[in-house]
């Protein structure tokens, strides 16, 4: 039965796409959680919906078949522009970050429905993009997903030290001479690319969950930044491949199944982790010397954990 699934050309494309999404989404999500911008993926996803409808409109005007041939390129452009605008507003504007995200939420949905109506479609045409439709993944979509995933991984992993510094403490990063503004834009752009990569698998409304929940799971078992990212990627791949495999045998939504599995893993790990994780004793480098200040054990452990994160 498993061999039947693996030899199906449709499932081969779907599994490759799910594998790429499972790796890339948690990489970017690790930075978003560190920056306390867990809802940024939602805001970008709503803006990308306007790009989908705009691509549909342009495709219909050019007489392309199918009409949504330019939907993914349109989503990429709109998502990148929206992510950069959110970062600009957050940094320089008078509008607070959460208010900017709220405006993107409402404007993205409204713009998508408005433009799809002008293109001659209906809001039902947007459902496959809102909640994912792995059955519509074509060879062209798969190649675009591969290229975008490689870009996201190259930036997210290759610049991890600089991006961690900016995400953890912008003031310290500025004092260290890092180009904070440019790195913030990089995080925004790779977040936008990740949203469009995951659009076909889990949908624009659920993509943020796949970026954040695996990171939340990883944080239950490790505190070091690098190990958190690696663990989150493993969790992302497992839930994506498992969820997609379930949908091959049962008629359920792949995006919803993947997210439900991820949340289930988080619930189980949250219950089990306190009993499994052992509290490590704090290492004293000079046990022969008296302590100048007697710190509480909890404060000492927090200081050690913060030092580990900075490594």
From TrEMBL:
It is a multi-pass membrane protein. Pfam families: ABC-3. The keyword Cell wall biogenesis/degradation does not apply. The chain crosses the membrane at residues 14-33, 45-64, 70-89, 101-122, 142-160, 172-191, 197-217, 229-250, 256-276. It is found in: Cell membrane; Membrane. Keywords: Membrane, Transmembrane, Transmembrane helix, Transport. Belongs to the ABC-3 integral membrane protein family. This is Metal ABC transporter permease. It comes from Promicromonospora umidemergens.
């Amino acid at each position: 039965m498993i061999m039947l699934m693996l030899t199906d050309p449709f499932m081969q494309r779907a599994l490759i796409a799910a594998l790429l999404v499972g790796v890339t989404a948690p990489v970017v999500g690790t930075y978003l959680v560190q920056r306390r911008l867990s809802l940024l993926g939602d805001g970008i996803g709503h803006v990308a919906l306007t790009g989908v409808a705009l691509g549909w409109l342009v495709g219909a005007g050019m007489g392309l078949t199918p009409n949504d041939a330019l939907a993914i390129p349109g989503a990429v452009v709109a998502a990148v522009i929206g992510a950069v605008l959110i970062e600009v507003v957050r940094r320089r504007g008078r509008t607070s970050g959460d208010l900017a995200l709220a405006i993107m939420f409402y404007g993205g949905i409204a713009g998508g429905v408005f433009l799809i109506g002008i293109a001659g479609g209906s809001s039902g045409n947007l459902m496959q993009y809102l909640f994912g439709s792995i059955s519509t993944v074509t060879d062209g979509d798969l190649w675009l997903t591969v290229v975008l995933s490689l870009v996201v991984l190259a930036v997210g992993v290759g610049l991890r030290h600089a991006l961690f510094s900016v995400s953890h403490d912008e003031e310290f990063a500025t004092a260290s001479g890092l180009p904070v503004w440019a790195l913030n834009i990089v995080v925004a752009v790779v977040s936008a690319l990740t949203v469009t990569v995951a659009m076909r698998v889990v949908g624009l409304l659920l993509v943020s969950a796949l970026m954040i929940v695996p990171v939340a799971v990883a944080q239950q078992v490790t505190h070091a930044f690098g190990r958190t990212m690696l663990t989150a990627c493993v969790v992302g791949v497992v839930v994506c491949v498992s969820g997609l495999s379930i949908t091959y045998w049962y008629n359920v939504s792949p995006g919803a199944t993947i997210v439900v599995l991820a949340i289930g893993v988080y619930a189980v790990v949250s219950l089990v982790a306190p009993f499994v994780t052992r509290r490590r004793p704090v290492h004293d480098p000079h046990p022969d010397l008296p302590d100048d200040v007697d710190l509480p054990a909890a404060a000492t452990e927090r200081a050690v954990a913060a030092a580990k994160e900075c490594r």
